[in-house]
Write a structure and sequence with these properties.
Order of helices and strands: EEEEHEEEEEEEEHEEHEHHEHEHHHHE
CATH architecture of the largest domain: 3-Layer(aba) Sandwich
Number of strands: 18
CATH class of the largest domain: Alpha Beta
Largest sheet: 6 strands, mixed
Number of helices: 10
Number of domains: 2
Shape: rod-shaped
Structural class: alpha/beta
CATH superfamily of the largest domain: P-loop containing nucleotide triphosphate hydrolases
Strand order of the largest sheet: 13-14-12-15-16-17
Helix content: 10-25%
Amino acid sequence: MKFIDSTEIFVASGSGGNGLVSFKTASNKPRLGPDGGDGGHGGDIVFVAAPQLNTLSTVRYKSRFIAENGARGGTSGKTGRSGEDTEIYLPLGTEVYDANSGRLICEILVAGQREIVAEGGRRGFGNLRFVSSTHQAPEEYVAGQPGVELTLRLELKLLADVGLAGLPNAGKSTLLSVMSAAKPKIADYPFTTLEPQLGVVELSERGEFNLQSFVMADIPGLIEGASEGKGLGHEFLRHLERTKVIAYIVDAFPIDGTDPLATFDLLRSELHAYDETLANRKSVVVLNKCDMADGEDDGPKKLMIMKESIEAMDFKVFVISAATRIGLVELKEELYELVSEERRLFEAELASRLPVVKGLMSAVALGLENHGMLDFSNAIADGRAFAKQG
């Protein structure tokens, strides 16, 4: 499936139903008393987290979502039927922006999350609401409030635990394929990965029925100038923003003779230029293709010098061969421990943002402070209340 990470949609919540002006009638006894009921609430537009999705394709090809209007009030004081909500399912990691202002409205982060992004119009009042001791036959009613219309920009950033950062042809796809069940395209030329690939890495070495795992993402390769948008540039870097841990994959013995230490410096500088926070995220360095050391002059010695030089920069280094599966167990164990620590920190942060995650930000965040039911005097000022049925 093609990876779709950005799209725009139009949403409109339902309008509230009008209140009804009505009077009880009987043979030879007209207008026995008011009995006009309230209208129904308009339907909401609700975003629902769907962990089973990994692209925005479900909304890319249907770009308009309109909730049902509330029904008009009925006789005998009956309330009109409320409009059905429209639910839109989105993958975890989706950010929702107002397309006109660019303001972030909400983020879809956890399974079970529901966000009301466009609240339905409140119901109108029927004339039964306005009966008093001095006003026995009211003909006033309140119209339902209109719904909310928004053009929204949706952006999906991968929620992988570990992001693989490396130059094209560094062996990222091979590493993902041998550490998980993912089957990315693998070839001996650059840029075989043009779209992010996800794989679940299980710690099967800890027991057949152990459920410990993490998600690893093979992201399209970096090149010099990526932070300025060159090559796959920002398309690559934006997906690393969500990863908890970054694994720098460095080809220890590149065919073109490039210095691996210079390559590592390049990777770090591109991340720093793009986002300091991203560059300072927990990370490990993976020197790949160590199986080629024996075919190089002083290969093992060069490999050891590389490892010690990077460790002197305060990075933990793993020497592996994805092709021959050397050193993968140790790498997997370390990544899992780092991911587990970051998950604990993330959950603590999420708990502090609980009102947002539970969907309590919608009306206030959208500036709809007056979207609740208004009293009759406010309705008159708004031009929604009428002395006679319209």
